[in-house]
Design a protein that fits this description.
single chain, alpha+beta, Pathogenesis-related Protein p14a, four-stranded mixed β-sheet, 4 strands, 13% strand, globular
Length: 191
């Protein structure tokens, strides 16, 4: 009896880990494809941003039960994008706020079974390509749920860095302290 239970738990563990690896694999494959695309345009490769990935996961969870239409994903007609009333909550769950996400780009795409070549095409050959072609984007967060893949691009500016609220606050405080110290040293030197 105990050996059967142990065997069942082992099987569940293997199946669960395979699913997690598959999800990461889809996201890693997309990142590799996007970076190859950017390299072909002589742009720098995007690096992973955990806070953007967190928000991408929250948004993918919002889309997971939506069907693909021309008001969702890469085929979205401008002005018909879905609005999430809980967007502030999604940001807060990732320790973000609007001030550090303003310059980022959120790009959802719906592809049946997340076929890798079609997912990549949905980003590189749609209205999203203008974001991928822009050198101001330096980092990326990717998450998927069901037939949805959400990509978030970030910048290295304060308004698009996707730094957590705590990190941004610490940077501001240290910047202020540095400026205060600089003024104090300047004042002392004038005496």
């Amino acid at each position: 009896m105990a050996s059967r239970l142990l065997l069942a738990l082992l099987a569940i563990s293997i199946l669960s880990s395979d699913r997690l690896v598959k999800c990461d694999s889809e996201e890693d494959n997309l990142l590799q494809g996007i970076n190859s695309y950017r390299t072909s345009l002589n742009l720098t490769a995007l690096t992973k941003n955990d806070n953007a990935k967190c928000l991408a996961k929250g948004i993918a969870d919002q889309f997971k039960n939506q069907l693909c239409t021309n008001t969702t994903g890469a085929d979205t007609v401008p002005g018909t994008e879905p609005q999430f009333s809980n967007y502030p909550t999604l940001l807060a769950n990732c320790h973000l706020n609007v001030s550090v996400t303003r310059d980022g780009a959120i790009m959802p795409a719906c592809v049946s079974n997340l076929v890798p070549s079609l997912v990549l095409t949905n980003f590189t050959q749609s209205q999203y390509s203008s974001y991928l072609n822009d050198s101001k984007y330096t980092q990326i967060g990717i998450s998927s749920k069901n037939d949805w893949m959400v990509v978030i691009l970030t910048t290295n500016t304060p308004e698009g860095s996707y730094l957590s609220v705590e990190s941004a606050s610490l940077i501001l405080k240290s910047s202020f302290a540095y400026q205060l110290l600089f003024l104090l040293v300047g004042f002392v030197l004038l005496l």
